Every structure is written in C-alpha cells, then in structure tokens.
C-alpha cells in the first residue's frame, strides 16, 4: 500500500469518529484533573484532535470560566468531562449548555436519571464510559450518543479489565453509536489496530502530559520521563466491604498515605460517621488534593502522580501538535509498510 492509499484508508477508518467529534482526527484528549485545562485542551483541538476539559471537583462558576477561556484559545470543537457523583452535577450540566459546549463526557459511574436527556435536549452530544457490554447497551438505550471504553492500563481511576479484552468484547457488540477506545495507547500502530477492530477513534491521556502546552509542573513531567510501564501501579483495596475504584499512579509515598487515609475512612464508615457516598466523596477529595500537589506544586514524592502504563513511551517533552502528528505518521507508516497478496506472503 503506497502512502496516499494509506492516508485514504486511515481517513476511512475513523471517518465516523471524525464526523461525530467535528475534528480533523478522531483523537480525544483524556480528561486529567489539573492537567486537562484551557491550555492543553485548546492545543489538542488546534492540533487537529479533540480536547476535553476535566471538570473534576470544579464549582459551576470555575467551570464556566474555564470553558470561556478555552473558547478564547480555540475555535475548534472541544468537550467537557463531568463526574457523575459531583454534588452540583445538575448545575454543571447547565453551565455546559449555557456556554454551548458541543460534547459532554459523563464519567465516574452511571449517570443519574434525566442527565443524559437534559444534555441532549440542550443540544449537546453525550459520551459515556462503559466497562462492560451490558452497561454499554444500557447507556445506548438511555440515549448516549457515543461510548468510551477504557482499559485498566490507563492512568487515574481504572476498571479491572484490559483495553484489548474490552475492545474484543464491546466493539463487535456496539454498532449503533461510535465507540472510542482508551487505556495504554501510546503509539500510532496501536491506535490503528483498534480502528481496524471497529473503533471510531481513540482517547489518549498519559501521552499528552509532557506536552509543552501542559501546565503540569516540571517535576511532574520529569517523573513521567523517568518512569517505565511497571512503575505505574494501581492502588490497593483494603476492605472488600468497601469498594474503592483503583487509581493507577507512579508508586511513591503518596500511595502509602492513601492507604492510611483509606483505613481511616473505613473506620469512620464502620462507626456510622459516614455513609457510603460520603465516604467515596472523601476519597475523591483526597485524590484531587494529592493530584494537585503533584501536578501544580511539583510534590511528586507525597502527591499523586497519576499515570497510565504507556508512561514508558513518553520520552521527551513535545508540542501537542507534534505528538498528534507522530501518532498519525506511525499509523500511516504501518499501513504503507504492509505487503498485500499471497505472493508477498510467499516472499517472507
């Protein structure tokens, strides 16, 4: 396959994702709290991808400010990621609709009743995370316009199943809406593989942390550049009665502090001082604070250095547009290098 044919084939593979996102390439930026803010989000969109603001624990006013600031930096489409357990979710949805955000990603659990429809009625396209086929089908029936599947190789909050297995289970089963694959993708060849399996696009988080436009502290970026895949480990659940979503991060003293904090929260839960939702929110607040210390303040020893296993493929600081171009070039080169036909096979 020559280069021109390879480029045409790649365009065909992710045409559905590109049309859905309204971007040149169907490459979404993963929503990383404190990292996925106006500068990186606009850089991803300006580079041809699709940036996504990580709302995290922002108040409605803070989210409104962030959206408007991003709109000043890019005229390209971008989205907003909202955590479904946020106590002000309804108000945050209102801010997204008020500011004319075209796409909203609902993450962190099943969306509460009416959330998807409210967004759709307001003109936004809704994307939801699905960790299993049954849940993906339920979300589509509930009105989700697209599904994101994220494997355990990802950084931050993770599920128990690998990206490759999720892709094999879900891609053949969900055809009515676009499906985007995330978790552990660091090279264009892997991106191409998922597109050929039926994905409409991909989502990258870890790969963008060391972009020059990323506001992550130099210490945070250095930790990424030094790390290998095996350094990014999931947190441990201490009590099976108390389900805690694992978080993948580079191992440091912050991980130990989380285990201590988890014991304290479980003890308070056992004493009846906290109900399950309140306990989970305390844990989320812990992660938000620990992540801020690492990303913004540069405390990579006691802060949380959330990273996916693809961190070993992050070897230098690059402009966001260059990272995207590298991914595209790797995919096109992989296609162009292929031999086709039985005769080629016989020559090997």
TrEMBL record:
GO terms for molecular function: monooxygenase activity. The keyword Secreted does not apply. It holds the Pfam family NMO. Keywords: Flavoprotein, FMN, Monooxygenase, Oxidoreductase. The keyword Acetylation does not apply. PANTHER family: 2-NITROPROPANE DIOXYGENASE (PTHR32332), 2-NITROPROPANE DIOXYGENASE-LIKE PROTEIN (PTHR32332:SF20). This is Nitronate monooxygenase.
């Amino acid at each position: 396959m020559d280069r021109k044919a390879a480029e045409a084939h790649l365009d065909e593979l992710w045409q559905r994702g590109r049309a859905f996102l309204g971007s040149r390439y169907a490459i979404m930026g993963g929503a990383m709290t404190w990292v996925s803010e106006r500068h990186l989000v606009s850089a991803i969109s300006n580079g041809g991808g699709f940036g996504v603001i990580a709302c995290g624990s922002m108040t409605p006013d803070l989210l409104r400010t962030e959206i408007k600031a991003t709109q000043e930096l890019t005229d390209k489409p971008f989205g907003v990621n909202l955590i479904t357990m946020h106590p002000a979710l309804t108000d945050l949805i209102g801010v997204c609709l008020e500011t004319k955000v075209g796409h909203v990603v609902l993450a962190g659990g099943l969306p509460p009743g009416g959330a998807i429809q409210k967004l759709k009625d307001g003109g936004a396209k809704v994307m939801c995370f699905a960790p299993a086929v049954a849940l993906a089908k339920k979300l589509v029936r509930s009105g989700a316009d697209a599904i994101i599947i994220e494997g355990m190789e990802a950084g931050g909050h993770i599920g128990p199943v690998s990206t490759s297995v999720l892709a094999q289970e879900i891609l053949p089963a969900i055809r009515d809406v676009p499906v985007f694959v995330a978790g552990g993708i660091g090279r264009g060849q892997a991106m191409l593989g998922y597109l050929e399996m039926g994905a409409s696009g991909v989502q990258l988080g870890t790969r963008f942390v060391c972009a020059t436009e990323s506001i992550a502290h130099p210490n945070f970026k250095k930790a990424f550049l030094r790390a290998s895949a095996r350094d990014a480990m999931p947190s441990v659940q201490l009590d099976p009665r108390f389900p805690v979503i694992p978080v993948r991060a580079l191992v440091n003293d912050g991980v130990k502090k989380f285990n201590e904090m988890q014991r304290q929260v479980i003890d308070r839960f056992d004493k009846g001082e906290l109900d399950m939702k309140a306990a989970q929110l305390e844990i989320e607040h812990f992660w938000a604070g620990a992540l801020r210390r690492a990303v913004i303040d540069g405390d990579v020893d006691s802060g949380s250095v959330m990273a996916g296993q693809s961190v070993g493929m992050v070897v230098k600081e690059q402009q966001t547009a260059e990272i995207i171009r590298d991914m595209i070039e790797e995919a096109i080169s992989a296609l162009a290098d292929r031999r086709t036909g039985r005769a080629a096979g016989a020559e090997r």
